[in-house]
Design brief:
By secondary structure, the protein is of the alpha/beta class. Helices cover 49% and strands 15% of the residues. It binds nicotinamide-adenine-dinucleotide and magnesium ion. Residues 8-14, 35-36, 38, 57, 100-102, 105, 123-126, 150, 205, 207-208, 210-211, 269 line the site of nicotinamide-adenine-dinucleotide.
């Protein structure tokens, strides 16, 4: 029986993870469920899965949850605060942590799980973007197993040799596929007028709001390039991006002998989640089987870096190294919030990230404190830039 801590339980990855877990009740038990403030969603999770502990970071949401659970006669212990969350993932009562918080806010709990030597199923790509070297070194030190949930990285993991060397032996390049998002094929000019509702409407995947906007700007693919670099130990020059509108080939590994191995499947996050939850065994995901005959064709194209400059900015941040990826990520989080609130246009997201990267110098990312400092400075600067854009 695997004892799971699901961090970000009420979100899109959280709900998909619970769906897969419920299909194999003899294999998985939900020990800890954590989220920010959704007490209604957390109540439903507690009714269905009866975790030993439920954590809401927000104190008043946790108080509401406590009242609801008492009324329902449920025995789940309710905790609140970010410190409780960090302590719970490192606790001996848990052996597998699903890190599915959105944003750099997930870094402390992801790091705690890795440092405690847990099996960590990683959806929270922003943690790896900000502090990849530190997380990988911590995993090597503690013996933690990192299993990627991001569909592209999970695909690559499935296509790599099973001996898990870093970098993997015999690999020439990794090819990350990108759907191209809702605005694929549009020019930079045409993108000036797109709305939040249009940007949130991803053609192939149902996801949380932040990653949906990142998919529309291609920043998501940029973050994934950095994520792939850290997970698999290959340089940026050996990681390529392909636009593949069908989202059927989830990524590919090119070997030095000219072989390409790819993983294919329906565009359903339960597939990578089931792979990582069950690994090294295979378990039911509930995803529909892929109908290759109905699909008939697979298209691949170069990404348009003029229309979608965020991808270029991410490659540049990876090259610059140090705190540059943390700065890129923090500025992007603020800019995406600005766009979602209606304060910023879609094309201004890349402008804000670029401006913050240009204004802030990068330094060494030798400690979590240094990364968090860079994150804070970039957020402050990005908020000023967004304010300037709103007022100007
Ligand atoms: P979401 O917005 O649907 O859910 C986010 C979850 O994190 C919620 O449970 C929320 O309560 C929790 N959360 C947010 N801030 C928190 C904080 N400060 N402290 C504690 N909990 C907090 O997001 P999502 O789409 O599920 O994405 C989660 C992560 O997975 C992101 O890093 C995203 O890039 C990655 N990911 C998502 C998908 C997908 O299909 N949704 C695919 C690949 C990767
Ligand atoms: Mg992905």
């Amino acid at each position: 029986m695997k004892r799971i801590a699901l961090i970000g339980a009420t979100g899109s990855i959280g709900r998909n993870t619970l769906d897969v877990m419920a299909r194999s009740p003899d294999r998985f038990v939900l020990t800890v469920a954590a989220a920010r403030q959704d007490d209604v969603g957390m109540t439903e999770i507690c009714q269905r899965f009866a975790p030993a502990r439920a954590i809401l970071v927000d104190a008043s949401a946790a108080a509401r949850l406590r009242t609801r659970l008492t009324e329902l006669g449920l025995e789940t212990e309710v905790l609140s605060g970010a410190d409780a969350l960090v302590a719970a993932v490192a606790d001996g009562a848990v052996d597998t942590v699903v890190a599915a918080i959105v944003g750099a806010a997930g870094l402390p709990s992801t790091m705690a799980a890795v440092a405690a030597g847990k099996r960590v199923l990683l959806a929270n790509k922003e943690a790896l973007v900000c502090a990849g070297e530190l997380l990988i070194a911590a995993a090597a030190g503690s013996g933690a197993t990192l299993l990627p949930l991001d569909s592209e990285h999970n695909a690559i993991f499935q296509c790599l040799p099973q001996d898990h060397t870093r970098p993997p032996r015999g690999v020439r390049r990794l090819w990350l596929t990108a759907s191209g998002g809702p605005f694929r094929g549009m020019s930079r000019r045409a993108l000036a007028n797109v709305t939040t509702a249009q940007a949130l409407k991803h053609p192939n995947w149902q996801m949380g709001p932040k990653i949906s906007i990142d998919s529309a700007t291609l920043m998501n693919k940029g973050l994934e390039v950095i994520e792939a670099h850290h997970l698999f130990g290959l340089p940026g020059a050996a990681i390529r991006v392909l636009v593949h509108p069908q989202s059927t080939v989830h990524s590919l590994v090119e070997y030095i002998d000219g072989s390409f191995l790819a993983q294919l499947g329906s565009a359903d996050m339960r597939i990578p989640i089931a792979h990582a939850l069950g690994w090294p065994e295979r378990i039911d995901s509930g995803a529909p089987s892929l109908d290759l005959l109905a699909l008939a064709r697979l298209d691949f194209a170069e990404p348009d870096l003029d229309a979608f400059p965020c991808l270029r900015l991410a490659f540049a941040a990876l090259d610059a190294g140090g705190t540059a990826p943390a700065i890129l990520n923090a500025a992007n989080e603020v800019a995406v919030d600005g766009f979602l609130n209606g304060d910023l246009s879609f094309v201004a997201i890349a402008d804000v990230v670029n401006e913050v990267l240009n204004r802030l110098g990068t330094s060494s990312a030798h400690s979590i404190a240094a990364v968090l400092d860079a994150d804070r400075a970039a957020r402050d600067m990005a908020m000023q830039v967004v304010k300037g854009a709103v007022c100007g």
